[in-house]
Amino acid sequence: MPRRCALAAMVIVAAVMLGACGRATTPTPPPTPSPAASPTPAPTATPDPNRPDAVEIALAAILARHRVGWNQVRVLSWEPVDWPDGCLGIRMEGMCTEAVVPGYRLVLEIGGEVYEYRTDRAGARVLMAAGPLHGVDEPALAMEVRDEGGCRLFLVAADGRVAYGPCGAPLTPLHLVEEMGRPAQLADLLARFAPFEAQAADAKLVLVGRGTEQPSPAWQRAVMDWARVAMREVEYGRGAASLDLAVRWQGAIADRAGYCRFLQVDACGYAFASTARCDGGDATEAGRGWLTTAELERLDGWLYALGIAETDGLLFSGRGDSPMTDADRAAVESWAAAVYDRLSGVRR
User: Fold this and answer.
1) pTM of the predicted protein model
2) Which among 106, 116, 111 has a CA at the least distance from the CA of 161?
């Protein structure tokens, strides 16, 4: 298929995944507030001991997700509400429990935009019911995940803007977590790979790349790992690199007593090299970057064959079932040392 046609096909697939979720909605007519409804408080930009704990818990989660502080938010109103179902009265894909769910409606102003959020009684389930347009109408990356948590859609524009939320529901406008380097990593992936689709048992992904490299199955799995972690970071408003850890290795520095080389490799194929005291402290970055295809292919083979293993100087977060043998451990350690040397510019 010519490149232009392939690119158009990927855009169409991403648009289909976006479906009716690309637009914000106006709030639906509200359920009747529960009899215990409190008078609407004045706008505030600080935690308020007069608000229920569930409201404070939900606000903290919303602020983290939007990556803003209390001084950047106005609480326009909150009220207790009995929602008609487990989806808190928000139309979305999947089954919603039919029992009435007590909870709260919060109307907030964030960054000059008005949002309506809904919660359950504990403030643990927090969903956006209405808000501004997210603007990610031509995503560079689109992923749909269907698991025990329901169906969720994760759309990412080339500039790092994100639209995220339950499938079929309004999607919240957010951003990739910058301190984890996600926008730059996305730019790398888009520049390197040609457009492709990938599937797993619980997810499907479309990357509308601008490059020419056709990703191997190992790279397709790695990009999906990257998207899963980036999605979790957006959901919780903080870095979640530990969720993607594949290898953590350390080796002594022969001519520097008490100091070690450290390497962390994520399943998405990105690695970080540093030096530090072997017992912690005085860390200095030595390099970072993507694995080569040959390095990733070896890691992928171990990752999906071997189980979790931890020995002195090595933590391996395998996803397979086979126990790690001494020969496997030696091979992984040798591989890690070579990756460290390449990233740090050491020639041996």
Assistant:
1) 0.85
2) 111
